[in-house]
Design brief:
Length: about 350
């Protein structure tokens, strides 16, 4: 059987740390090269895993003319499926022109956040309109959690299948042996923006002075939070920015608790990464993350006060932290990228049932 030809609308660059780009790379590098031929774009240096993968074609983009080159590939490239289509000018033009150009590729869009984008507070109206004219006009939509699927149905009346976000449980893993921290360490990883809730970590640091708090990330609130810590004389908070993936993993491995107060999410990768590293996770109940089981792998809370109360419980009980951490690691293994990629392979094969001898 001839391989199914996929054009993946993402960048293969090794230094691209956008969550969607890293997810696309994690899927691409695991697809069976005998059954799936890949084409994808890059700007600088492709991810080494993809560079070593057979049946992979890289499309170099320059500093200028990217929209035209991407559109050209969309319309006239030889592919059966356009996967992971992004909200971009090229995708908007393609979805407008494809019928006129007799394009028969199947377009797959992924939805990885709640669909009430206007409630996010940081997304501009023109970005929402572009999302509506691209991702939502795909032939098929896939959500990464039941909550995201329900939100898409509620906001736009659109159906979708669910395939979760994954995690590399071989890379993100606990240290075999780690000396106990002299003081419990609480970790946050994410963009320092209001809806992500990093300000709660500063409040928690004041409330629990016997613990240390580490915020990994950057964003609009970075300077404000650092000033608040400095001017308030809060000495148990540390900020880390611009980390590579190995340094990020070190932070997970050295922490005792992962606190993620974000209100507006789909299925956050950072929760899975923390879980895979054996951390109990405290998160919001708002988006019902399947990657946290309340009272078994961590806690879910509805309010800041409830999250802080749960944090107090874990800080007071090393034994509970260890039990939850082991259960958290076990749960993360159900979301390993190897298993998630097999599900994507089943989808691609289902959509393109090409009998032996049919021209590619």
């Amino acid at each position: 059987m001839k391989p199914i030809r996929l054009l993946v609308d993402s960048f293969a660059d090794a230094d691209g740390f956008n969550a969607q780009m890293t997810s696309a790379r994690d899927i691409m590098c695991r697809l069976d090269p005998v059954r799936f031929h890949l084409s994808t774009f890059y700007l600088g240096q492709p991810d080494a895993r993809l560079a070593q993968r057979p049946a992979t074609r890289f499309i170099k983009l320059g500093d200028r003319g990217q929209t035209f080159r991407i559109l050209q590939e969309f319309l006239w490239g030889k592919h059966d499926i356009l996967f992971y289509v992004k909200a971009s000018p090229a995708a908007r033009l393609y979805l407008k022109l494809r019928r006129k150009c007799w394009d028969k590729a199947i377009v797959i869009g992924t939805v990885e956040s709640q669909s009430d984008l206007r409630n996010a507070g940081t997304i501009k109206p023109e970005q929402i309109r572009l999302w509506e004219k691209t991702i939502l006009r795909s032939d098929l939509l896939f959500s990464n959690s039941d909550s995201v699927r329900a939100s898409l149905e509620r906001e736009y009346g659109l159906p979708s299948e669910v395939i979760p976000t994954g995690v590399d449980t071989k890379f993100f893993s606990p240290l075999p042996e780690r000396p106990e921290n002299p003081r419990p360490r609480v970790l946050f990883v994410g963009s320092l923006r209001l809806f992500k809730g990093p300000q709660l970590l500063v409040r928690a640091a004041v409330q629990f002075p016997s613990a240390d708090f580490v915020l990994v990330g950057d964003g609009a609130m970075a300077a404000q939070l650092e000033a608040q810590v400095r001017e308030g004389g809060v000495t148990n908070v540390r900020f880390a920015r611009g980390l590579d993936i190995l340094s990020l993993r070190d932070h997970y491995r050295q922490a005792d608790i992962f606190l993620f107060p974000s209100r507006w999410e789909g299925s956050p990768k950072v929760i899975l990464e923390a879980a895979a590293c054996g951390l109990p996770v405290i998160a919001r109940r708002d988006y019902q993350p399947e990657t946290v089981v309340d009272g078994q792998t961590g806690y879910l809370g509805c309010s800041d006060d409830e999250l802080l109360e749960r944090l107090g419980r874990l800080l007071a009980s090393p034994e509970t932290r260890r039990d939850f951490g082991r259960a958290s690691r076990a749960l993360s293994e159900r979301f390993d990228w190897d298993q998630i990629t097999r599900r994507w392979e089943e989808v691609f094969t289902r959509l393109v049932r090409r009998p032996e001898g049919t021209p590619s």
